[in-house]
């Protein structure tokens, strides 16, 4: 009887697990929510949640690299709890995609929002608030 219960429980878990990269409607785990909250709360620079294969993530990293800005990057596809962390990020920000970028505790958004913020000077202003000098200010 125990084996049958375990099998059903295992099958139920398999139903809830989505293939890599597919968003589900289930809530993130409490530990993933706490992990994201701690990372944002302690962030005093640029924090990016990314996937190593994402061209938009690569583009965002290049924007910061070319401006001489160090970025703390979490590659969600390389972290054991990456799916749960991405769910927690969605719950926190309303954004399902990567990159998911924070400057200090401020949520910038994804690649499009980053580029818009670079263009209008908002990203430069946020970097100044956290004490980071960059060449992004020259874009204005």
UniProtKB/TrEMBL annotation:
This is Glutaredoxin. Residues 46-108 form the Glutaredoxin domain. It comes from the Eukaryota. One of its GO terms (biological process) is cellular response to oxidative stress. It comes from Hondaea fermentalgiana. One of its GO terms (cellular component) is cytoplasm. InterPro entries: Glutaredoxin (IPR002109), Glutaredoxin_subgr (IPR014025), Thioredoxin-like_sf (IPR036249). Signal peptide: none annotated. One of its GO terms (molecular function) is glutathione disulfide oxidoreductase activity.
């Amino acid at each position: 009887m125990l084996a049958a219960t375990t099998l059903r429980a295992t099958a139920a878990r398999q139903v809830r697990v989505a293939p890599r990269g597919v968003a589900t409607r289930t809530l993130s785990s409490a530990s993933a929510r706490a992990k994201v909250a701690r990372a944002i709360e302690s962030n005093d620079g640029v924090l990016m949640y990314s996937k190593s294969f994402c061209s938009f993530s690569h583009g965002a990293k290049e924007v910061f690299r070319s401006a001489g800005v160090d970025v703390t990057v979490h590659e969600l596809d390389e972290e054991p709890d990456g799916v749960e962390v991405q769910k927690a990020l969605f719950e926190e920000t309303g954004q399902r995609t990567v990159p998911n970028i924070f400057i200090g505790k401020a949520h910038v958004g994804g690649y499009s929002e980053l580029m818009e913020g670079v263009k209008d000077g908002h990203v430069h202003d946020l970097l100044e608030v956290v004490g980071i000098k960059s060449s992004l200010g020259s874009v204005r």
